[in-house]
């Protein structure tokens, strides 16, 4: 009995310490998770250019746990209809959309639609512009990411003046870039710290 009392006391003491430690641990984790632990979000801002195109694109991991990336697109100043829309391999130098280079294609595939069995990682298909020249849509890509070999951060997004033939054009250019026409808007993709 003499030994039992200190033992019980010790047990109770160590249990209360565990609770304190775990509470402290939780709040520590919270305060550290404003940076690396938070959901990564990347944005790409098209500043109004001589074509009159501007807008914002935001990329973030899909919240459904699918591993896809959601691409939120809000653009204005475009001509109504379908416009090719892609991630290109290089950042934009100045305001020259030609500096974007070719489509981002780390897996060395042919050009295609966003959900085709074969397509460039950067292929996002066409975006549909309404009669007022605007688009507000969300695309879902199962290939591009914000880390690893298919990371698009530091690369660029280009919106084209014409429709992407999605690799079905029957010529060599179709399998390279979808014959999407001139580059009417572009921006460099940059990583934001957090979406909180
Ligand atoms: Cu393009
Ligand atoms: Zn492509």
From TrEMBL:
SUPFAM superfamilies: Cu,Zn superoxide dismutase-like. Residues 53-189 form the Superoxide dismutase copper/zinc binding domain. Its EC number is 1.15.1.1. It is an enzyme of class 1 (oxidoreductase). The keyword Signal applies. InterPro entries: SOD-like_Cu/Zn_dom_sf, SOD_Cu/Zn_/chaperone, SOD_Cu/Zn_BS, SOD_Cu_Zn_dom. PROSITE patterns: SOD_CU_ZN_2. Residues 1-21 form the signal peptide. Its cofactor is Cu cation; Zn(2+). It catalyses: 2 superoxide + 2 H(+) = H2O2 + O2. GO terms for molecular function: copper ion binding; superoxide dismutase activity. Keywords: Copper, Metal-binding, Oxidoreductase, Signal, Zinc. Binds 1 copper ion per subunit. Belongs to the Cu-Zn superoxide dismutase family. Destroys radicals which are normally produced within the cells and which are toxic to biological systems. This is Superoxide dismutase [Cu-Zn].
